[in-house]
Amino acid sequence: MTIPLWLKNSTLEGSLSLTLFDGEGNPIFTHSGKWLHPLLAAQTFIAANSLNGGELLLHDRIAGRAAAALTILMGIKRVKVDLLSSLAADLYNDYGVAYHYETLVERIACQTERLITDQMSLSEIATFIEGRVASAPSF
Questions:
Q1: CA neighbours within 13 Å on the CB side: how many for 106?
Q2: Is the domain 15-130 a CATH 3.40.140.30 member?
Q3: pLDDT tens, residue by residue, 16-31
Q4: Which of 32, 76, 80, 126 is the most buried (most CB within 10 A)?
């Protein structure tokens, strides 16, 4: 599976941090939140609309290992990321996700990236993220 040229050339406008596209390249979901909240909202959107993640394409502003794990668990197979960690790239490679990035870094500056270990499975990463969301203060 390859990344279409239109996705490689796409940009996230303004404060958007994530856009989810259908197979024809039409944006079907956007989010402007921080941390992993856009991906968690996309996950809810996919489930609520009974969408097949394998038919969708994702443009995310920043992706570390946690974001990659969530993307893989949603079944998404084609991703563009503006700032990608090599740890996320390793997960994408392991699970057959085609990806394109603007900038590759060893790690993103995020505590979650440091706390996830190489020994954790995708489901353990998801459970870890759910725990962090549940323990976060609400505003």
A1: 1
A2: yes
A3: 999 999 999 999 999 9
A4: 80
